[in-house]
């Protein structure tokens, strides 16, 4: 069922997410949000879905202003506008860049949605259900760890790129990667987070 058909069959006020999807013709994004929230493996949290939706709003605003989304610039601008770890100076600079390019940042911020708005859209507007079990605990924690690693990677990438562009670093094309490792001092073993969570135990515990 399309979002138009869902909207026509539901009386009352239209959800904010549904309004924005209709306004910017983002119907495929609504289906994507539902899929990411309800699929069996690697389900996305509501907060991650809200970030996904808001990044697409920013990308759309940039396209309307004639800006090109090169090398994930929309994702980086979204981080600069919303991340708690961003300095006030960096945030102001990002706002100025966007406004000079023709993006209405104030309107954009007002249109950004919360995870509660995404939940309302999925449950009330799309009739989606997200059933959790105790077995999902490891998966949720793994997702949280990946988000922290990705955020660290994005922050370091931004800093390195800035230093490179300003001539403080001499390097061809810097790319930052963050890999989280878990070390066991009992048996001197080391694992990636994904491997440890998949196996559920260290080598030294299998011999006990």
- Main-sheet strand order equals 1-2
Discrete helix count: 10
Give the termini distance in whole angstroms.
55 Å
List SSEs in N-to-C order. Answer: HHHHHHHHHEEH
- What characterizes the major β-sheet? 2 strands, antiparallel
Strand content: under 5%
Extended strand count: 2
- Helix content class: 55-70%
Give the overall form.
Answer: flat
Average predicted local confidence, pLDDT: 86
State the secondary-structure class. mainly alpha
- The whole-angstrom Rg is 21 Å
As residue ranges, the low-confidence spans are none
Pfam families: RdfA (PF21811)
Organism: Halorubrum trueperi
Protein name: Rod-determining factor RdfA
InterPro entries: RdfA
Protein architecture, described:
- By secondary structure, the protein is mainly α.
- It has a domain at about 5-130.
- Helix content is about 60%, strand content about 5%.
- It contains 10 helices and 2 strands.
- It has helices spanning about 5-10, 15-25, 25-40, 45-65, 75-80, 90-100, 105-110, 115-125, 135-165, 195-200, and strands spanning about 180-185, 190.
- A two-stranded antiparallel ribbon has the order 1-2.
- β1 and β2 form a beta hairpin.
- The radius of gyration is 21 Å and the shape is flat.
- This is Rod-determining factor RdfA.
Secondary structure blueprint with pairings:
Layout: H1 3-8, H2 16-23, H3 27-38, H4 46-64, H5 73-82, H6 88-101, H7 105-111, H8 115-125, H9 136-165, E1 181-184, E2 189-192, H10 193-199
Antiparallel strand pairs: 1-2
